[in-house]
C-alpha cells in the first residue's frame, strides 16, 4: 500500500478489520483522532497494521445499553475505519498514533480470530457517500451550527479560534465539532450513524441545545 493512500470506494478497503472498542471515541471520515496506545493487545494491533502495510484500524464503541461480558463487551454495529497517518514511540512501551478517518463500516459478524484483539467481517457499502469529500455541505445550516457553538462556548466560559472556524468548510467544521463534543457514547453514536452531513449537524445542534437548557436556572433568558 503506497504512502498517502487514496480510497475511492468500498472495494479499496479490506472486508476484514481489526476492531478497537473505545467508549466515547468518535472518528468520522477525514477527521483526525490522536490515540495513546498502551494495552498489549492494541500495541499488537498497531504492530500488525503497520506490518501488513494497510495501516487500518476500525474504531467502534461498546454498546453500554447491552454490555455483555466484561472481557468481550457487545459492540455497536457501526464504526469508522481510520488509517494510521502519524506514529511515534514514547520509549516507555507506548505508541502515540493519529488516525485519519476513511469511511464508516457496518459489522456483518465478528470473527473467531487468534489475535489478542477482536476482528470482524465488515461492509462499507451502506456508507459509499463517505468516500466523496464534502458531499452534502450545501445542505448544512451553518448559521444554526455556529449559533449553537457560540452559545455553548459562552455558557461554559470558553474561547475559540473564530477566524479558523469561519474559514473551515462545512464538512470539516461539522465533523470536528462532533468529534470534539463532550457528549456521551449514545450521542456520539447517533452522530456517527447520521445518514448525511446535514443530519449530523442537526443532531449536534439539538444535543447542544438540550445540554444548554439543562444548565439554565428558572428565570434565565434563553441564549440567542
Explain what the structure shows.
By secondary structure, the protein is an alpha+beta fold. The protein has two domains: 11-131, Archaeosine Trna-guanine Transglycosylase, Chain: A, domain 4 (Roll); 137-215. It is built from six helices and six strands; from the N terminus they run ββαββββααααα. The protein has a five-stranded mixed beta barrel with strand order 1-3-4-5-6. The longest helix has 19 residues, at 197-215. It is globular, with a radius of gyration of 18 Å. The termini are far apart. Residues 217-224 have low confidence and may be disordered.
Spatial extent as radius of gyration: 18 Å
Largest sheet: 5 strands, mixed, barrel
Tell me the name of the CATH homologous superfamily of the largest domain: LON domain-like
- At the fold tier of CATH, the topology name of the largest domain is Archaeosine Trna-guanine Transglycosylase, Chain: A, domain 4
Note the quaternary state here.
single chain
Number of strands: 6
Quick check: average pLDDT? 93
Helix content: 25-40%
Segments where pLDDT lies below 50 for 5+ residues? 217-224
CATH class of the largest domain: Mainly Beta
| Secondary-structure class | alpha+beta
Order of helices and strands: EEHEEEEHHHHH
Overall geometric form: globular
Q: What's the helix count?
A: 6
Distance between the termini: 50 Å
Largest sheet, order of strands side by side?
Answer: 1-3-4-5-6
* Strand composition percent: 15-25%
Architecture of the largest domain, according to CATH?
A: Roll
| Whole-number count of domains | 2
Amino acid at each position: 500500500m503506497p504512502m498517502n493512500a487514496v480510497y475511492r470506494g468500498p472495494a479499496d478497503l479490506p472486508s476484514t478489520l481489526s476492531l478497537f472498542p473505545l467508549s466515547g471515541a468518535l472518528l468520522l471520515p477525514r477527521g483526525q483522532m490522536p490515540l495513546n496506545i498502551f494495552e498489549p493487545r492494541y500495541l499488537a494491533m498497531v504492530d500488525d497494521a503497520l506490518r501488513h502495510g494497510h495501516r487500518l484500524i476500525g474504531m467502534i464503541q461498546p454498546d453500554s445499553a447491552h454490555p455483555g461480558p466484561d472481557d468481550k463487551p457487545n459492540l455497536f454495529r457501526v464504526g469508522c475505519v481510520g488509517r494510521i497517518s502519524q506514529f511515534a514511540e514514547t520509549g516507555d512501551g507506548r505508541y502515540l498514533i493519529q488516525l485519519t478517518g476513511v469511511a464508516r463500516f457496518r459489522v456483518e459478524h465478528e470473527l473467531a480470530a487468534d489475535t489478542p484483539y477482536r476482528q470482524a467481517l465488515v461492509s462499507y457499502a451502506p456508507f459509499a457517500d463517505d468516500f466523496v469529500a464534502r458531499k452534502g455541505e450545501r445542505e448544512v445550516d451553518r448559521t444554526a451550527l455556529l449559533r449553537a457553538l457560540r452559545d455553548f462556548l459562552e455558557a461554559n466560559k470558553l474561547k475559540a479560534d473564530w477566524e479558523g472556524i469561519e474559514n473551515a468548510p462545512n464538512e470539516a467544521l461539522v465533523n470536528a465539532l462532533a468529534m470534539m463534543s463532550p457528549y456521551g457514547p449514545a450521542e456520539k453514536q447517533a452522530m456517527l450513524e447520521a445518514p448525511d452531513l446535514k443530519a449530523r449537524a442537526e443532531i449536534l445542534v439539538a444535543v447542544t441545545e438540550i445540554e444548554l437548557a439543562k444548565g439554565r436556572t428558572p428565570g434565565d433568558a434563553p441564549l440567542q
